[in-house]
Amino acid sequence: MTNRVTLKGVKSGIVIRLPEEGDFNELLPGIEDKFKNAAEFFGSKHLILSIEGRKVSEMEAAQILKLLAENTKVKCEGIVMENPELEEKFQSLLGPDPGHEKELAALKKEREQMTETIENLRAAVDPMNCRIVQGNLRSGANLESPGSILIIGDVKPGASVTAGGCIFVLGALQGNADAGAYGDPDAFIFAMEMDPIQVRISDAMAIAADNTSRHKKGIFAKKEIAPPEVALIDEGHIVITPLDSDLVRENRFCKKLKKNVNGKVAAGDAADNGRPTEDQRK
Amino acid sequence: MGEVIVITSGKGGVGKTTTTANIGTGLAKLGKKTVLVDTDIGLRNLDVVLGLENRIVYNVVDVVEGNCKLKQALIKDKRYDGLFLLPAAQTRDKSAVTPEQMAKVAKELKDEFDYVIMDSPAGIEQGFKNAIAGADRGIIVTTPEVSAVRDADRIIGLLEANEMEDVRLVVNRLRSDMVESGNMMNAEDVVEILGIKLIGVVPDDEQVVIATNNGEPLAGDDSLAGKAYINICRRIMGEEVPYLDLKRRKGFFAKLFGKG
């Protein structure tokens, strides 16, 4: 993920995110591709370009602008980057339109605010702090917590749960669940009956297959007893897997929780394979 | 430049959402670029009827509040390339959107699509006002029952007060056997009471229920209701289409022993 060029549109312009490492010239074909693909989407609007993730030199910024001009019809009216001096220099080149300076400032502010909000949310995340909710969450309910969430009941279709940490559903998960919502790929979602509409963990997202409830309901459907399942990220994708003893023992599954436990328990003899020690079993 | 059509009824449960889904599917099948807008914020259903619930990321409230671009919130149908859905929010209520904002969304969609179909909620409050805000014409759905017809009459009055000129009627769930035995109004009776032009009559067909539960609208298939819906679409597009004979075909034995 980190060594790729990404391009996204925001309200007031285009944000191009470059990898921090590597030779700039090697990135150029990637940037060109991105611009080409996005040309139709951006049309011939007047936009502000924001270069993020890497400090670029004057020459490099000029090359990016050139590619933008060659491959799209976008009219670039300003540039935001991680080097304030260069920014001003380009600003004067690109047209000192006073009207757009406001927009430029707005984009900068928006970026700062976004970073700030995300930082604040991240800081509040505490997976060991668990909110416990008793009862069913029905359609339209929206439960959010910076910590983990334990629901003693069902999450019905149309309800959504968002947690900074992990989500445990002691019932059926049939709605939407978003764990590690502020960017924690180690977060996971546990449900006694896993039948969600959408599941998100950190940046990954998975949707239910069309028309097939994983556990059929109805008078004629065989009532199978589904095993408790866990949704977690495996190699960048969300996978749903039965909660068996192997998974419980596996380090990765409990990494998040263990990290915190180990941080708090000073003694180094806490079981490092996830198995409870004799003491803990009592 | 397309057209914005609102589908409304006043009374709940007469088949607005089912009609919307089927008209949208039918128009897409006939090659028109169509977008369906669910204005029933807080009690959304259209996504379920179309089988697109699992694809919702952004909704109409996100668009209005500027959390996303309109294009990002549009969900492409899984069967027809020309069909899109703009879903409603489930965790909010009708007051999250104003009629002016909804009219702006409708206007923006009109530039891109041939038809913008607004699915109205039941009632005459904010949700209804939102739904009709940007509409050029209206389709009233009613069933041949006095309560539904009474509510439809009130709605037609409200639409006329809003200076909507082109308002047409769909009579839904007509049972020809009950009409024949004199226990149900027929479509002509309903038209006479309401005094607006008919655009379609849809028979009470169990296939509709099955299709709705499967999330696959049946417009344009071989069922009687499917044919009725595609005919409504043709009439929306301005074609003259004769009305279907809704009499249930009698089985062999019924013909032998039936009273005629």
> Strand order across the biggest sheet of chain B?
3-4-2-5-1-6-7-8
Could you tell me how far the N terminus lies from the C terminus of chain B, measured between alpha carbons in angstroms? 52 Å
Q: Percentage of helical residues of chain B?
A: 40-55%
Characterize the overall form of chain A. Answer: elongated
Using the coordinates shown, work out and report the CATH topology of chain B.
Rossmann fold
Report the strand count of chain A.
15
Second rung of CATH, namely the architecture of the largest domain in chain A:
3 Solenoid
- Please identify the structural class of chain A as seen in this structure: alpha/beta
Quantity of strands of chain B, as a count: 8
End-to-end separation of chain A: 44 Å
Which percent band covers the strand fraction of chain B?
A: 15-25%
The CATH superfamily label of chain B reads: P-loop containing nucleotide triphosphate hydrolases
Largest sheet data of chain B: 8 strands, mixed
The percent range for helix content of chain A is 25-40%
Runs of chain B in which pLDDT lies below 50 for 5 or more consecutive residues are none
Task: Output the CATH class name of the largest domain in chain A.
Answer: Mainly Beta
Task: Write down the domain tally of chain A.
Answer: 2
Topology as H/E string of chain B?
A: EHEHHHEEHEHEHEHHEHHH
